[in-house]
Amino acid sequence: MSEPSDLTEDGFLGGRLRLRQPKSGHRAGHDAMLLAAATAARPGDRVADFGAGVGAAGLALARRVAGVDLMLLEIDAGLAELARGNAALNQLSAAVFVLDVEAGATAFAEAGLFPDSVDAVLMNPPFNDAARHRGSPDAGRRLAHVAARSTLEGWVHAARRILKSGGELTLIWRADAIAEVLEALDRGFGGLVILPVHPQPGLPAIRVLVRASKGGRAPLSLLPGLMLRDEAGTETLKAAAALRGEALPLSAT
């Protein structure tokens, strides 16, 4: 467990969510809040956050959608303990598991995550290719950011296993590696909706938010891009609303 002096307490969703997190290493930011905003859920839904870290995305979703049955999965025991504390700090209910997403069906079942038992999965997997990206000397940051070639496929496979038929997976990924997402989701998922995220108009997308349905058959839909800032560098109204905790609908209609 980190000492208090090694932590910061930061505000998200316009101050409606407080998160204690390490000063160094991987820290929650815009990606987690955008992922939460893009995830569809209803009260009573069973929702699993893969690679939850200190709980940022899952807890942000729980703040927006009251009454979700939230499970936070994190491989790092120290971050999992912080996630448990952050749930209590924000008076939100969440079950926290120290679990490797790629551990397999038996480990998931021991945590009560059986096949075809979950309504929604959200994930922000490590997405920097180790062959192209020099990993951070900080072990926690490196674990959170640098992926093996099989990482995305393994995480998607785990989501496919525990999702109910028609359940939805929502993820955030590097825009320049969208082909990897399409390949991973080609088995068992359909109805993909993709939202590119751009830093400003005229600049290439840096992230993609993707929602897919287990067993879905609808054609892929590519939405108009979300601009984080306008030409003057001011945060756009749509981005600001998502970062305050409003839903960011990923809909083909």
Automatic annotation (TrEMBL):
Keyword Transferase listed: yes
Molecular function as annotated in GO: N-methyltransferase activity; nucleic acid binding; S-adenosylmethionine-dependent methyltransferase activity
Pfam family, one: MTS
Amino-acid biosynthesis keyword on record: no
Residues annotated as domain Methyltransferase small: 34-189
Alphabetical GO biological process terms: methylation
Keywords: Methyltransferase, S-adenosyl-L-methionine, Transferase
Name the UniProt record assigns to this protein: Methyltransferase small
